Structure formats: C-alpha cells, structure tokens
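Handout, page 2. Input:
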Amino acid sequence: MRNIFILFLLIVVYGWSCVPAMAAVLKVESDFSALRVGDVFTVDLAVGTEGQVLNAVEAEVVFPTELLEYVASDDGESVVNLWIAKPRYDDINVVSFSGITPGGFSGVDEKLLTLTFKVINVGQGTIKINQANALLHDGLGTAAAVTKQNLHLAISAGESATVVNTIDDEIPEHFTPEVIQDADLFDGAYSLIFATEDKGSGLDYFEVKEGWFGLYHKASSPYLLQNQALNKKIFIKAIDRMKNERVEILYPQNWQPWSEHVAVIISILVVCVLSLFVLRRFWRV
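Output:
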C-alpha cells in the first residue's frame, strides 16, 4: 500500500513538472520570400498570446543595414491603441516601440506593427527581435514569458520586380477619435486617442487643434487635452507622406453648439467696432 502511495506521488509531481509554461510568441513574418536588390517589401511584427490575455508589449527590432534600408513603419492596424513610445527608427539599425491596450487582447497572430524596407545589397541576414517584454492583463502587471521568432532573408542578384507607385491622391482612411480618462495616463486627466492608416504613400503624422480658434499642433496618440473642460470641438488631422489630409471632428461631452457661435459673433462684432473706429479717425483726417 505504501509503495502504491509513493508511486502516486511521483506521478503527480512528475506530471505537474511536465506541464508546459505558456509563453507569448513574438514573431517577425513576411509574405515576401524571394528578394532582389531594389525590392521594397514589408514585414509584420505580430504576437501570439497562447491563450493568455496581454495588455502591454514592448520590443526592439534589429535589421541588417548592410542589406536593408529602413523606409517606414505603420501602426494603423495595430492591436496596440495607446503608445507609450510610438514606433521609431534610431537611424542605426533598431526600430523600437512600447504600448498598452486597456482591456487586454488575445489571439494567434495579433499585428503590432508593419515595417517597410528597401533591399540594397545581395546576401543573407536576419531581421530579429533583440529585446521583448509583455505584461499579463491580470491587474498586477505580471510579466509574461516571451519567446521570439526571427525572419531569415536570402537576397539574390537580378532585376527588382517591385513596382513603386509614386502617385498618391487618396486621403488617409476614415477614423474615429475618442476621449478617454485612464488613471495610468497623464495622472487621470482627459486624453485623446486616435489611429488610422493610408494605403498609398503611408501615414506621415497627425495634428490636433482644440476649439475653432485653436492652432494645429503635431500630436501622437495618446494626446493630453489642454482643454480639460471638454467644451470645445476637437479637430484631428491625419496627413500622409504625399501631404494628403483627412480631418475628423470630435464633439466632446460638454460641447455646446451655441458656445462657439457666441464666440464667433463676438469676434465679428469686435472687428466691426474696430473697423468703424479706424474709418471715423480716417475721415476726420
């Protein structure tokens, strides 16, 4: 009987130790397999959560500069909707980013980022994930285990088959900006989140203007709103690399239609009074 009990314990302990630890899989993948010098191609950085729910990801992507030239990054289809550090290229060979998704996400191939490169030389190399971290959506900020899958490239000589379309007269795609309030962002102040994509030349940057008489300023999501009263219209402009623009207008919760109309009327009246004053002085002379 004692031997049976010991055997049972061994089976339980051994079985428990053999349960595989779940690890999120961060991967670099591409549909372009045969590359030649001059080709322009894209790679996707994606994550498989392996049944877990994640809410934060950061990574560095390294590429061989002797083979590739960095062109652009696109986060328009990213599962990340709040960037702590937007995807950026450091002018050496690293593209880095850090972002969160309130509410969390899970899936097999959730896109994080699309990178565009131009092939400049013949050879073999790897686009690899140098560093990567992820957090579980458990309310505790628990670090998730992460495994990495890199992309090997083989580039041959020959004429490039890439056709580059330099004509882009399409504006960026429609998007819906949103005002949020999150205790983990800007100390709980109201902020604005937005994202879109441009299938032509690619998205270049955003600009935000608060109120009819405000000025546009370059902005990235999330954007700390200066008008915390939320009583002015918010204009969000998306601009692509060919300078095509789309403007979306957000009417925040405390916006009153008459408020800006009154401001416009007062401005017109002030201009009229000043004009009359100047004209009277002119005619007296």
